[in-house]
Input
Amino acid sequence: MATARDIRRRIQSIRNLGQVTRALQAVAASKVRKAQEAVLATRAYSNAAWEVIVNLGAGAGGTLHPLLTCPASVESALIILIAGDRGLCGAYNHNVVRTALEFSQNLGVPVRYITLGRRGRDVLWRMGAEIVAEFHGLPALPRLTDVSAIARTAIQEFLEGKADEVYIARTDFVNMLVHRPVIQRLLPLSPTRLDTQVMMECVIDLEPAHVVDYIYEPDAATVLEAVLPRFTELQVYQAVLEAHASEFAARMVAMRNATENAGVLVDDLTLIYNKARQRAITREILDIAGGAEALAQALAAA
Output
């Protein structure tokens, strides 16, 4: 049985851990507010841009730009896996990695990866998956220039024919408590074909948008050459913002739960400590009373 001193040391250790988790919760809460503002500020524009490029792909029929061209058959795929650099965020990293792996198995074709975040990279590396490129250390509020290299790498893989389709595995920020791992098709920029799309609950943007007949000035090729790569970068940027907001929210909730659990554990250990201390006091009183009784009997016998 643990002594009162051992229990007291454990209580102090848990209190110290509670202070650390409380500090991490405060930091995550500060970051998640800014990340949530960034997500909500760009989400409407990103969704509108996605509708535009889907309409471009539907109207052009894949003839105006290589990024709009759907392959005759899918022989390979590329997945941009967006996870975190650190842990202490509950099941956030595990959920998005598991979703990406399950989706890659359902594709039925060779899959390569571009990883953003050390956690996802480490899992894929241990599994022996082929990683085309890896990125980490992005700031809490990244700029478009911080993620443009990821989009350029994916575009290059698609244009060179090394990947027939490109997907983004990310976490969709719903609110502070709900963060849903999803799969979003990035390339080709065309309406999704429901008969060939891998049907999973995590896949989004299945329904093609309404086709709009655009007027190009000066001409379609010039406009699309400038617009489509930028729109692709924007989709990756929005995915990173969604993932960062989800990560910070998950970390805040996890650290809050850890802090509360530390408080409950301290209360339980304090009760155990008081009982152990009471037992020790009672034992000392009994020893004193027993010694006094023995001395009294000895004096009476003398």
User: Anything to note?
Assistant: The beta strands are 77-82, 111-116, 131-135, 165-173, 179-187, 203-204. The chain has a mean pLDDT of 83. The radius of gyration is 29 Å.
